[in-house]
Amino acid sequence: MVSDGTGVADIENLAQRRLAHTLQAAHLRELPQRMRDESQADTDTLLAIGALIGNLLNRQEEARRAFGEVFAGFLKEEHHQSFRTPLAAAPDDGWPT
């Protein structure tokens, strides 16, 4: 990924990763119950799905920690001007600033 110098792209990437991990883990939580109810899975399969869920939750936690670090960089004073200039040039459209 190419950084835009402000950290916005990094924050967006981390948010997308976290959402993907959350959705995948949610799907995997439902799958074993359905498979068991329909007698489609043996114990090893259900254990493997549990391991996958654990891995996804670990990756989600890593993304959560990384978000804090990236966001702290985004808040640095040198990035403030990057956002002030375009906002100052925005037309007065009645929205509060």
Number of strands: 0
Q: State the major sheet.
A: none
Helix content: over 70%
Q: How many distinct helices?
A: 3
- The average pLDDT score comes to 76
Spell out the helices and strands N to C.
HHH
From the alpha carbons, calculate the radius of gyration and give it in angstroms.
Answer: 21 Å
Structural class: mainly alpha
List low-pLDDT spans. Answer: none
Shape: elongated
Our measurement of the CA-to-CA distance between the termini, rounded to an integer number of angstroms, reads: 31 Å
- What percentage of amino acids are in beta strands? under 5%
Write a concise synopsis of the structure shown.
This protein has 97 residues and is an all-alpha fold. The chain has helices at 8-37, 43-74, 77-88.
Which descriptors would you attach to this protein?
97 residues; mainly alpha; 3 helices; 76% helix
